[in-house]
């Protein structure tokens, strides 16, 4: 079954066509990669799916329901969650609190709202509710392998751990489709290798569908089952990793000739 479907999506900013007539489908349970050079339009595609931008033209469907132009909060509640290229965590809340706040995904704005939410849950005495939220949040941190950092302030974490926390937060919304924007950015080689394993595991254990943007080609080629390549807002290739990495258009526009000899 297809989970996500984009039909002829176009996004113009004044005279600039950031994304031009892009169509693709992501099937349930798939690990789908969106790649291409800087400025190709990848994040703009994410922003249209999540309702941060309204497409100039085209339609977007999630599980056969049209979601084009719906507000981000509504789209999150329908089951789509994302991480951001520039990490967006509540830096002065703990790791555990960050995940607990994300469970209540209506509270998506500023740190004050997040603090108010946590305080009211505790003060009004929803002890059982709080305990349940804590347990769920801890189990997500466990899955991501950062449970040992639960009581640390998120601002004190390494870059790699912050990226994992962002994934935990996206999962905490109860989403069935995760959009990950450069999840390996800032990670070292061993963290990246572990991330491949983790993304596969959460896909399997939580029956998720994952759409990701990434510049680390080893991760993309080793993890994704299908890949779409954008260049100047247009689709230049789509297929499995074996096909895409041999496609001359992709090598010329993005991977470079050195990929052919050393990349694999
Ligand atoms: N809000 C905006 N207003 C004007 N131009 C924008 C806006 N958002 C994106 N763009 C432009 O759209 C084009 C595509 O940008 P986008 O961020 O989607 O690329 P990208 O493929 O994600 O790049 P990168 O790999 O560097 O993150 C760029 O030329 C960018 O400057």
List keywords for this structure.
globular; binds adenosine-5'-triphosphate; alpha/beta; four-stranded antiparallel sheet; 42% helix; Rossmann fold; ATP-binding; single chain; 264 residues
Explain the layout of strands and helices.
Blueprint: E1 2-13, E2 16-27, E3 31-35, H1 42-49, E4 57-62, E5 65-66, H2 72-78, E6 80-82, H3 95-103, H4 111-123, H5 127-144, H6 159-172, E7 177-181, H7 189-205, E8 209-213, H8 217-223, E9 226-231, E10 234-239, H9 241-244, H10 248-255, H11 257-263
Parallel strand pairs: 3-8, 3-9, 6-7, 7-8
Antiparallel strand pairs: 1-2, 1-4, 4-5, 9-10
Helix pairs in contact: 3-5, 3-6, 5-6
The structure holds adenosine-5'-triphosphate (ATP).
Description:
This protein is of the alpha/beta class and 264 residues long. The chain contains 11 helices and 10 strands. The protein has helices at residues 42-49, 72-78, 95-103, 111-123, 127-144, 159-172, 189-205, 217-223, 241-244, 248-255, 257-263, and strands at 2-13, 16-27, 31-35, 57-62, 65-66, 80-82, 177-181, 209-213, 226-231, 234-239. Strand 7, helix 7 and strand 8 form a beta-alpha-beta unit. Helix 3 crosses helix 5 (127-144), helix 3 packs parallel to helix 6 (159-172) and helix 5 crosses helix 6 (159-172). The protein is globular, with a radius of gyration of 19 Å. 41% of the residues are buried. It binds adenosine-5'-triphosphate. Adenosine-5'-triphosphate is lined by residues 13, 16, 18, 36, 38-44, 85.
